[in-house]
């Protein structure tokens, strides 16, 4: 037990502050091997994390690094450096505090390795890189504490798995290391605690007072929400009115594209010229920083943003959060709401804006969940093996290693506590020789075992390549966007490569709230020019699409059981009543399927409530099955709650379509060749070190012969080595993420044989909005060839080359 | 249709969906840029162990084209091996496989920039091969005519109804044909590239490979 030194207590009182109970508890538990603190935003969480460090450094001078702080954002590390400097100086502690991120200069980085500061602030990727150096033991010598900020965000991604493996390494170097995790409210603190602590160490969980219940409601608008779509454009006047009534409003969107379109429309309607900015992850860093600074100075009345503002930095006077589009996930909603009103003990104020009629239902369900504090989240399952492979290579960069010790170390990392020796050996084999059935690389092993049994890099020069490819964030598909004829000019931001490939010169699109015209592609940069038009021709890049959580979907199904819906707006309640009258409403534990003719075609609507990604996968699998039994499907469209398939013929019996074995079989065979599976493979193969994103510039050639697509590797492996580790990892990853097959399995298990097939004479009220959804998927197969032939004929004719 | 018929310097030729060029008049099959042994070379140079199945995949497809055409002459247009060391390092099994494909045929290895010297493999090694009215060489020479070459790994993109579809492609005009790369582990150079735009005549066409072949004006 550690008492708070007098200087620190005096500093608190000089500020007129009293120490929060959870801050004091952190000091009391300073010697616990691991502590997880759960506190709302504005609760002095970061200070709580550093108090034990400051107390220890006040009592005992320390040589070298004392505390390592890791946050998911570079900007957060820089921000904390500023915020920590003031109290440290005022208390009068001779402490060096420095940050180290991708933006730190090479000289500074070199100096930090030779002479580390007392407190180093960094990111998971920079830390992983640090552990790959031969001199890591010297740099981290004497390290006593590690603080992981925003651990709830890291716990949901591979960045967290990577961090925990790096922590395991640090713990080997410094056995007495104490771990602290700082988290926003989460549904399962135990799960986060298990990730944080060294297995099987216990983890103390401290929960701060969550503060007052948020003031949260649905925004009332004069205009009715549209039947489909996700823009929320109908609510612009009402949103502007709210912006006027508040000091600073954060307007959250679920995708970058929607943020861009909304910002554009908001700007067109902004007759009072209120200062409004936009902030999302695809914008250039300098642009983002400019918006962040303007916001800190209180110069902006509103910021249209995405998840890029979900985390940490203190934004000053935000007094309203508006969420456009259904929140999809109650936990994230609660965390976003926490962004409003950073003063502890003041209620946060938030408004939800459903983007369409169905989302009205989802928003009401989410509001209930927030009031009941029923947070959602899916358990993540064991740590992914692609990240483990990367860390085996990182360990090899740091020097020769013993396989037994490395296994013990990695299995002590929370996400890998169930790692078997066999799985570890598979990964080691993959790192060493590729792990192929054809033992081809005896001569050119990447790792080789020395006579003394230790493993090392065959060629030490490979360490540089491995270090250049550390990390789990997949941004390889992004291309920079730049104004033409402004060499070296500031980039505007980034777009997805697939989006860029779909552009023809002259097309206009939105980026950073500006309409630009596509000019061409030049050395992996998209060149654009200004465009004076008011309406962009093409919507922007697609960005991440979140799927509605399992728990929120279940809540919506429960709502459908109600005899009537007094909490819903009249128009939406009318719509549900009509559906109940003409067909029936989907129900918990059952699967509703409607079939009906419409517009000369047969339609099948499957209300799986499995979330957007799984419904999309279900659409792919079902249309394949329909094709096999000769029902000629033509296309489908998916939302978070249903998939609508259209085709030439109606099926008589639909039960066999939902046989889980047949669907699983489809995942293994047919879906295996699908583009989403290939994308999943590319991500994992890049993390595992099979594909390099970055190549040393000395070895860059014209690149022509060097570059071939990862799809070729995937096809080759599937054909010649279907049991290869990388394909196993890909199948594992397909259970979540873009393919999300796990949700399909969950749905089949939930409904069993309780399938209700309703045959209707015409389209049902609940199915009708699906026809208006964008993102319709035509069935491939013969379709693409037809498309190609048409276009080829047209081009040849136009060029006068057909004969 | 898995073939595209055209003529060069009066010689009737067939572009095959696999990326091979078939000259029925000479019973000659021409393939370019096999890059055999590429995975071995990458492992040797960078340590990255790519799936070592590229050579057998390339040879399997080549065997298929040979069986289909029953060609008496085969011309490999250069860069047949990813480098000379990769040729030497081919597993015995794959060397025998090549020998089996060679049996009963005239086999010509044209030198490429990746494999500039002779390799220890059966067949004739030549810098270029004239078979009037055509000439086979690795890299196209500006101003030449009746020329069959490879080297650039051309690919072409069609945009149709908002979708863009890219495939490796033959480029052809009245002077020359540039073959796509035949090897499994090969990428492509877009026909838009300055080099290809300069080399090919204005009225050049791109013939997209694949199960069905499509000829379009060469995108530039």
Q: What overall form of chain A do the CA principal axes indicate?
A: globular
The secondary structure category of chain B is alpha/beta
| Helical residue percent band of chain B | 10-25%
State the total count of DSSP E strands of chain B.
16
- Second CATH tier, the architecture of the largest domain in chain A: 3-Layer(aba) Sandwich
Strand arrangement, major sheet of chain A: 3-4-2-5-6-1-7
Classify the oligomer. Answer: heterodimer
The total number of structural domains of chain A is 5
Mean pLDDT of chain B: 94
User: If you compute it from the alpha carbons, what radius of gyration of chain B comes out, rounded to the nearest whole angstrom?
Assistant: 17 Å
Return the CATH architecture of chain B: 4-Layer Sandwich
Structural class of chain A: alpha/beta
What does the main sheet of chain A amount to?
7 strands, parallel
**Fraction of residues in β-strands of chain B:** 25-35%
Tally of separate helices of chain A: 30
The first-level CATH class name of the largest domain in chain A: Alpha Beta
Task: Indicate the proportion of strand residues of chain A.
Answer: 15-25%
The number of helical runs of chain B is 5
CATH topology of chain B: Purple Acid Phosphatase, chain A, domain 2
Which value, in Å, is the CA radius of gyration of chain A? Answer: 28 Å
Q: Please provide the ordered H/E string of secondary-structure elements of chain B.
A: EEEEHHEHHEEEEEEEEEHEE
């Amino acid at each position: 037990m550690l008492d708070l030194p007098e200087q620190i207590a005096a500093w608190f009182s000089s500020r007129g502050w009293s120490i929060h109970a959870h801050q004091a508890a952190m000091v009391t538990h300073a010697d616990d091997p691991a502590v997880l603190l759960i506190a709302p935003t504005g609760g002095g969480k970061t200070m709580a994390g550093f108090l034990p460090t400051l107390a220890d450094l006040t009592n005992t001078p320390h040589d070298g690094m004392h505390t390592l702080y890791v946050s998911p954002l570079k900007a957060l590390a820089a921000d904390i450096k500023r915020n920590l400097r003031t109290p440290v100086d005022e208390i009068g502690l001779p402490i060096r505090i420095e940050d180290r991120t991708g933006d730190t200069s090479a000289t500074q980085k070199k100096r930090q390795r030779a002479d580390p500061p007392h407190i180093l602030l960094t990111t998971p990727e920079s830390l992983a890189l640090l552990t790959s150096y031969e001199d890591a033991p010297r740099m981290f010598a004497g390290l006593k504490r590690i603080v992981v900020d925003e651990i709830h965000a890291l716990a949901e991604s591979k960045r967290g798995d990577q961090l925990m493996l790096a922590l395991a390494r640090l713990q080997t170097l410094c056995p007495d290391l104490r771990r602290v995790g700082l988290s926003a409210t989460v549904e399962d603190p135990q799960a986060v605690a298990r990730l944080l602590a060294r297995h099987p160490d216990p983890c103390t969980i401290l929960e701060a007072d969550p503060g007052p219940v948020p003031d949260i409601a649905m925004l009332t608008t004069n205009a009715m929400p549209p039947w489909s779509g996700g823009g929320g454009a109908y609510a612009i006047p009402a949103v502007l009115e709210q912006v006027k009534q508040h000091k600073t409003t954060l307007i959250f969107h679920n995708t970058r594209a929607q943020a861009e379109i909304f910002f554009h429309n908001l700007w067109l309607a902004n007759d009072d010229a209120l200062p409004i900015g936009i902030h999302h992850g695809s914008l250039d860093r300098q642009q983002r920083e400019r918006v962040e600074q303007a916001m800190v100075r209180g110069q902006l009345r509103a910021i249209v943003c995405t998840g890029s503002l979900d985390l940490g930095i203190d934004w000053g006077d935000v007094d309203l959060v508006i969420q456009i589009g259904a929140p999809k996930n109650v936990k994230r909603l609660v965390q976003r709401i926490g962004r409003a009103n950073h003063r502890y003990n003041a209620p946060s104020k938030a408004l939800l804006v459903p983007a369409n009629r169905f989302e009205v239902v989802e928003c009401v369900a989410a509001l209930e969940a927030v009031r009941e504090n029923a947070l959602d989240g899916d358990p993540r399952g064991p740590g992914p093996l692609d990240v483990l492979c990367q860390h085996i290579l990182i360990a090899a960069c740091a020097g020769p290693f013993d396989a037994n010790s490395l296994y013990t170390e990695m299995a002590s990392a929370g996400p890998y506590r169930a790692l078997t020796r066999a799985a570890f050996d598979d990964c080691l084999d993959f790192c060493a020789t590729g792990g192929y059935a054809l033992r081809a690389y005896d001569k050119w092993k990447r790792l080789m075992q020395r006579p003394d049994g230790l493993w090392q890099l065959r060629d030490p020069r490979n360490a540089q390549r491995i270090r250049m490819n550390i990390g789990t964030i997949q941004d390889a598909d992004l291309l920079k966007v730049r104004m033409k004829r402004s060499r070296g000019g500031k980039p505007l931001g980034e777009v997805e490569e697939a989006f860029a490939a779909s552009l023809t010169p002259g097309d206009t699109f939105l980026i950073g709230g500006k309409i630009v015209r596509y000019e061409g592609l030049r050395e992996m940069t998209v060149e654009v020019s200004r465009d004076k038009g008011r309406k962009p021709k093409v919507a922007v890049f697609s960005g991440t699409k979140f799927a509605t959580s399992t728990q929120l979907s279940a809540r919506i199904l429960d709502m459908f059981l109600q005899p009537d819906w007094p909490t819903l707006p009249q128009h939406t309640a009318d719509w549900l009543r009509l559906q109940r009258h003409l067909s029936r409403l989907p129900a918990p534990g059952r699967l509703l399927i409607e079939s009906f003719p419409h517009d000369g075609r047969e339609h099948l609507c499957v209300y799986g409530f499995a979330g957007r990604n799984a419904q999309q996968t279900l659409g792919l699998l079902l249309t394949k099955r329909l094709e096999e039994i000769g029902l000629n499907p033509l296309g489908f469209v998916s939302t978070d709650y249903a998939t609508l398939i259209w085709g030439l013929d109606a099926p008589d019996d639909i039960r066999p379509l939902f046989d889980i074995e047949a669907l699983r079989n489809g995942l293994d065979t047919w879906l295996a060749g699908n583009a989403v599976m290939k994308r999943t493979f590319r991500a994992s193969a890049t993390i595992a070190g099979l594909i390099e994103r970055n190549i040393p510039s000395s070895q860059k050639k014209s690149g022509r012969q060097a570059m071939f697509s990862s799809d070729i590797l995937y096809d080759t492996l599937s054909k010649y080595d279907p049991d290869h580790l990388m394909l196993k990892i890909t199948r594992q990853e397909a259970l979540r993420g873009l393919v999300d097959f796990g949700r399909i399995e969950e749905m089949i298990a939930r409904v069993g044989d309780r399938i209700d097939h309703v045959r209707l004479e015409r389209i049902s009220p609940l199915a009708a909005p699906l026809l208006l959804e964008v993102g319709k998927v035509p069935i491939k197969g013969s379709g693409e060839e037809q498309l190609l032939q048409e276009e080829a004929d047209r081009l040849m004719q136009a060029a006068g080359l057909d004969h | 249709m898995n073939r595209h018929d055209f003529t060069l310097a009066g010689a009737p030729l067939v572009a095959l969906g696999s990326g091979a060029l078939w000259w029925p008049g000479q019973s000659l099959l021409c393939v370019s840029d096999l890059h055999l042994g590429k995975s071995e070379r990458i492992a040797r140079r960078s340590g990255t162990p790519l799936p070592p199945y590229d050579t057998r995949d390339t040879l399997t497809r080549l065997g298929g084209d040979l069986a289909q055409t029953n060609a008496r002459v085969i011309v490999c247009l250069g860069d047949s091996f990813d480098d000379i060391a990769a040729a030497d390092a081919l597993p015995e099994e794959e060397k025998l496989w090549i020998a089996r494909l060679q049996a009963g045929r005239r086999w010509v290895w044209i030198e490429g920039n990746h494999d500039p010297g002779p390799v220890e493999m059966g067949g004739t090694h030549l810098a270029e091969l004239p078979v009037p009215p055509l000439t086979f060489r690795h890299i196209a020479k500006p101003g030449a005519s009746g020329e069959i070459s490879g080297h650039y790994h051309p690919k072409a993109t069609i945009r149709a109804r908002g979708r863009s579809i890219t495939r490796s492609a033959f480029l052809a005009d009245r002077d020359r044909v540039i073959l796509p790369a035949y090897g499994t582990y090969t990428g492509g150079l877009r026909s838009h590239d300055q080099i290809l735009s300069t080399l090919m005549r204005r009225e050049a066409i791109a013939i997209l490979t694949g199960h069905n072949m499509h000829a379009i004006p060469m995108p530039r």
